[in-house]
Amino acid sequence: xxxxxxxxxxxxxxxxxxxxxxxxxxxxxxxxxxxxxxxxxxxxxxxxxxxxxxxxxxxxxxxxxxxxxxxxxxxxxxxxxxxxxxxxxxxxxxxxxxxxxxxxxxxxxxxxxxxxxxxxxxxxxxxxxxxxx
Length: 133
Prior knowledge:
Blueprint: H1 4-24, E1 28-29, H2 31-39, E2 43-46, H3 50-55, E3 62-63, H4 66-69, E4 84-87, H5 92-103, E5 109-112, H6 115-121
Parallel strand pairs: 1-5, 2-3, 2-4, 4-5
């Protein structure tokens, strides 16, 4: 027979894990907040593939595909303690990029929730064409 203390311990452990997961969640912003941060000087990185970027991207973004981000962190060192806004198509890849930057010590990595889908839907400017970098 399993004791009541075991179930209490299990419940406490579950509550602690839930709280820890909530605390480790890095911040996200909606597209209008992302655009405002960019206007205030934040670096905005689009982590999609070049073909996706060419179809439409937010003005002023730097293209660094998610698969290249880890290898290109040295390009971003000057922004380690500054806001770095991350965007993709839907917010999924940019969330992964946010985690990569956070693990690398970037203190203000911010995910744009909803990505370019939400950006375009909100009527924010979208440019087409290849990346210049």
